[in-house]
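Annotators were shown the component list below and the corresponding predicted structure, then asked to write short factual statements about the assembly.
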Amino acid sequence: MDLATILIQLLNSVQYGLLLFLISSGLTLVFGIMGVINLAHGAMYMIGAYLAYAFVEWTGSLGVAILLGIPVMLIVGIVIERFLIDSLYSRDHLFQVLLTFGLILILNDIQSILWGNDTHGVPIPDMLNGSISLTDNMSYPVYRLAVSVVCLALAIGMYWVIQKTRLGMTIRAGASNREMVESLGINVRTLFTIIFAAGVALAGLGGILSAPLSSVYPGMGDNVLIICLVVVVIGGIGSIKGAFWGAMMIGLVSTFGPVLIPSLSSVMVYLVMALVLLVKPRGLFA
Amino acid sequence: MKLTMKTKSFSHSIRQSALAGAMALLVAGTAQAADPVKVGVMLPYTGTYGALGEAITNGMQLAIEENGDKLGGRDVEYVTVDSEANPGKAPQNMNRLISGENVDFVVGPVHSGVAMGMIKMARQEGAITIIPNAGLNAATRQFCAPNIFRTSFSAWQTAYPMGKMAYERGYRKIATIAWNYSFGKESLEAFEEGFKAAGGEVVKQILTPFPKVEFQAYLTEIASLKPDAVFAFYAGGGAVKFVKDYNAAGLKKSIPLLGSGFMTDGTLTAQGEAAEGVLTTLHYADKLDNPKDNAFRKAYMDAYGKEADIYAVQGYDAGQMLVQAMDVVKGNTKDRDALIAALENVKIDSPRGPWHFSKAHNPVQNMYLREVKNGQNVVVEVAAKGLEDPATGCSMMK
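Structure shown to annotators:
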């Protein structure tokens, strides 16, 4: 590999890592603070992508799709938390697993009923449709760079909210000791609703932003869920910072791994996860 | 990880029992009809391959409807199972159709992994099985059997002719890329065989993890290799993503993209501009402009309100095959040898052009070179006329 190729591959890693972070941050938030394993996280990502498809078909603009899609996802999150998950906090984890797994099936069927089983594409907005040439025959799509910028901005935003605001303080406190936070008179119920809705919205936003990059197809969330669980486990459950570095690590491994050791490309990510867990059983930042 | 796997199989069993219940009702409702021909249909109706299962079913039923909804003068009863494209469920679904429902024919599946499970059962139980899609070479090679037929293609057939076509277009060094699963690998090997025979060289074979759709790293690698062209195999959502990414990386201008026809079939609307100019080989194309194809496409559109595609054609031919063979044996499914002989000897006037079965029960058919123009796979030329799969290892070839 020459230097230019290595640099482009680094760019690929960072770009993929940032997108992974966006999607897994919601999962780790919900997981870490509420103790809820939201298996439907991938399905929410898929719904986001389909919303992007539907809204772009309808309005012709991805910007509008984002503006309409996020509130829809927030509402979905609030409804699910208030009406379904709320009654399960006192129960065993298995109940939540069952519930969120059931949600996958329901969301998949809703997708099938509303949009059918065809594969769809979402056009890249005209403004971002160009590409920057990097070498004599390789260029980089501007949209990919734009998505990276958005993800980076969100990462910084999330860091700021969690480290510098009162809400962030309660979130951090809630993550480390929920009972104590409750006994200090903080309304955990509202906090949980906010967090779950935010988690769903992050998954949805990930889906919306990925839609033009990827294709929109049934079951697209399943793979995403698995890779997100890997990211969350590597980073340490509940840690946003961990999710960030976990995602970066997976980005690097899944970009360079297959090129350097093609025969291990399918298992590379899981090998890395196993190695991390051997050294740090609770993840990097737990 | 463990968690998701466990829960997954759990859901399937729920779906399964729901399906079984629904089917029991269905069967109870239609059982009065006097001794109908039972056609077991085992196709995916949910998930990624759902649209394919639907198209095949539509095509097959259209062919049988055109025959007055009868096979050899008998009414037809369909027993449908959702294969879920899940190889793990294949033997049990197959068992339900053969032993539970006692069907006369099984039609299915789409997915090659499911096909492996079905073939194993079909060979054990001797059930007459018609594969309307799954292109794994083995089905009509080492696992061929008198009771197993395929109305679609072998992976080899869809990629081999492209080798010669690529060489004729002046490409000498080609990189190949596909998902790392049997169909992907078989496609790349067949292409390489054809391309080497023509005089070309494959400089690099890249296999990407199935079913992941993150290609940026591989595209960067291809750019640094600078081959004359790239031959690729992806399907469905992966094909959409790959073709779009390939175009977005600016590679299409300097390194033309060739592929197995599945890369641009049923995906062109989603691929849009990015697919324009991509060359592929397949046993079907748009604008074949033969009367059979025109009539079929119109009838399909009238019946289902959708454009027919390759999967609909394969289903239609499975239907045509049943119609023809059952007419020959006058609806008698008891004499199995006569029925199999009748099936073997069908001559199908297909929308894709006429074809017949090889000794290994795979179609001997034309393969077309197609170019994507204005969102259609327009036929450029016949890449190979009456191409027969080599059927290496099939015991029926002797």
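Statements collected:
1. The mean pLDDT of chain A is 90.
2. Chain A touches chain B through 60 residues (CB under 8 Å).
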